[in-house]
Amino acid sequence: MKKIGLIGAMEEEVNILKDEMTLKEIVKKAKLDFYVGSLKGADIVIVRSGIGKVNAAMATQILVSDFNVDVLINTGVAGGIKPDIKVGDIVISSDTMEYDIDVTAFGYEPGIIPRMEESIFKADEKLVELAKKVAKNIVEGRAYVGRIISGDKFVSSKEEAKRLGKVFNAYAVEMEGAAIAHVAFLNSIPFVIIRSISDNANEEASIDFNTFIEQAAKSSTKIVSEMVKLL
Q: What is the set of active-site residues?
């Protein structure tokens, strides 16, 4: 049986899953609580990583090294970048990039990490297809498959969102997914990022985020909950 690592940055992104799981134990590591147990017949470990790429990367490596997870799923909310993407829609990662890595002074394209084998981290195709299948029956809005980009900044500018969309061909932007994907790649662990759109990364983003975060988080966690029993 596969052991599944589930990661969310904030309480709103993991509380529903924690409430649904059968808890075996809580393990404390690096000031994080790892909830070990089962959900719909699957062995799982849930962690609230905290916000940002460093926190997400650390939590992911602990899931891999200390809990020996076989699959990684990141659930949460994001800002929509593509013009057609609306609040309440879902974006499933085709791949991810860290948009705030900039070594263009040395001739690299934006987001490319020097001396790394990969800088574009591709999600597992089977997990992507499963997420798409489940989302069709759950999501009230639309479910997209596309690139999710991450950086240590809350994007709240229409112009910046437009620029990121153009430079990276991104569907959504957030602050953890690409770091999780980066660690998953280095450990050869299949992953997928599932994000519900809470705002459109524009000047109203902070207001929309606070208004819609709980409902948006519910959508992505519902998908994850259904996926778990099918893995």
A: 13, 199
